[in-house]
Design brief:
The protein is α/β, with parallel strands linked by helices and 438 residues long. The protein has 13 helices and 25 strands. It binds shikimate-3-phosphate.
């Protein structure tokens, strides 16, 4: 990220053809973490070669794990076993990746070594007490800044104790952090979610032979187990597919097929919400690959209508709201989102940043404390700020499909955190977008 990028997206496109978008970010992170701690060699295919997943990969290399690749999405991880990590020589730089930092704080809390986790400007502002507080109850010693942010300094402790923790926020990162710490704790560790969140950690733990217990909204495991290497086929990321689901829905004459998309029911809120808005999405070739459901999605343009987004869908679509706001701007009538205050502590404050950009483009968008109200109407042209947030940048690129003139989007280098090759892939199916070095 030595230079930055700006996108210039022009109207007039429609999306047609067949593509496979980038690999799932959540699953890619977890494949490295569990593969590293497993006994044996784990082979991963479809790995996301984006900066976030690579930050995790490089962090485990710095802790002595031999990892080959990625090459064409293939990664081989030579597991070191549950207690085989080595203390790194320097702080582990996790870049923009909240998932790396929150999950690794749990995974490393009981390793008996000192490790410092650092991140970029955005990650250094994000709340970490949500993981360090419950980890402290388990006996971990992790220092944050006085604001409760990174750097996180993890100190060696004698051991961890299991916890029975009721999570105040619906966060898969917090749940995963505590389950990973729980593998190193005495007794059982249980987490209760206020609402279902993505369950990739539980599914993958089971795939590696580690028992995960379930009781209503509670997930638990017993410390002291081990992981056995396995092969992982990472599906295309539904969060990356979401840009194209919205793009093809709003651009007249579109007919686009997205191949091998992860359809985990804890991630499919974007499809449910778009369908409620009137989108035409066909699910084809449903199958299960390595414990995760996948399917091909065919999406054709449709007349969207504004809706009140059901709150139970919010955690299931948590990363897709920037582009769903673009869908709302193209819909007839008003869309109301509530219960989504978590959006304010993502890579950027996604409620404010999207509201600012939409307003610049002439859309009526009113932020509220925990959501937004958007009135569908014409999208104009102009220059918007992504604030270094990958998903904001890609969302506004899709908005150009219905704009009256060019949209210039600043600060787009971080698109490489989750979707390297976005501009080329989107151009190949008809989006008029180009990137420029600045
Ligand atoms: C993620 C969980 C979500 C999501 C993030 C990835 C994960 O965060 O926003 O992009 O891989 O567990 P929260 O669990 O904090 O909502």
């Amino acid at each position: 990220m030595s230079s930055n990028l700006r996108f210039i997206a022009s109207p007039g496109g429609k999306l047609t053809g067949e593509i496979r978008v980038a690999g799932d970010k959540s699953i890619s992170h977890r494949s490295i973490m569990l593969g590293a701690l497993a006994e044996g060699t784990t082979h991963v295919s479809g790995f996301l070669e984006g900066e976030d997943a690579l930050a995790t990969l490089n962090a485990f290399k710095a802790m002595g794990v031999q990892i080959n690749g990625p090459k064409d999405g293939k990664v081989t991880i030579h597991g070191v076993g549950m207690n085989g990590l080595e203390a790194p020589d320097a702080p582990l730089d996790l870049g923009n990746s909240g998932t790396s930092m929150r999950l690794m704080s749990g995974l490393l809390a009981g390793q008996g070594m000192e490790v410092t986790l650092v991140g970029d400007e955005s990650l250094s502002k994000r709340p970490m007490k949500r993981v360090t507080d419950p980890l402290a109850v388990m006996g971990a010693e992790i220092n944050t800044t006085p604001k409760g942010t990174a750097p996180l300094v993890i100190r060696p402790v004698d051991g961890l104790r299991g916890i029975d923790y009721k999570m105040p926020v619906a966060s898969a990162q917090v749940k995963s952090c505590l389950l990973l710490a729980g593998m190193y704790a005495d007794g059982e560790t249980w987490v209760t979610e206020p609402a279902p969140t993505r369950d990739h950690t539980e599914r993958m733990l089971r795939g590696f032979g580690y028992e995960v217990m379930e009781s209503g909204p509670r997930r638990g495991l017993r410390g002291g187990g081990k992981l056995t290497a396995c092969d992982i086929d990472v599906p295309a990321d539904i969060s990356s597919a979401a840009f194209f689901l919205v793009g093809a829905s709003i651009a007249e004459g579109s007919d686009l097929t997205l191949k091998h998309v992860g359809m985990n029911p804890t991630r499919d809120g974007v499809i449910n919400i778009l369908r409620l808005m009137g989108a035409d999405i066909e699910v084809m070739n449903e199958q299960e690959v390595g414990g995760e459901p996948v399917a091909d999605l065919r999406v054709r343009s449709a007349k969207l209508k504004g809706i009140r987004i059901p709150e139970e869908q919010v955690p299931l679509a948590i990363d897709e709201f920037p582009v769903l706001f673009v869908a709302a701007a193209c819909a007839e009538g008003m869309t109301v989102l509530t219960g989504a205050e978590e959006l304010r502590v993502k890579e950027s404050d996604r409620i404010q940043v999207m509201a600012d950009g939409l307003q610049t483009l002439g859309v009526v968008a009113k932020p509220t404390e925990d959501g937004i109200v958007i009135h569908g109407g014409p999208i104009g042209s102009g220059e918007v700020e992504s604030h270094g947030d990958h998903r904001i940048a890609m969302a506004f690129a899709m908005a150009s499909l219905r704009a009256t003139g060019d949209i210039t989007i600043n600060d787009c280098a971080n698109v490489n955190t989750s979707f390297p090759g976005f501009v080329d892939l989107a151009s190949s199916v008809g989006l008029n977008v180009r990137s420029e070095d600045v």
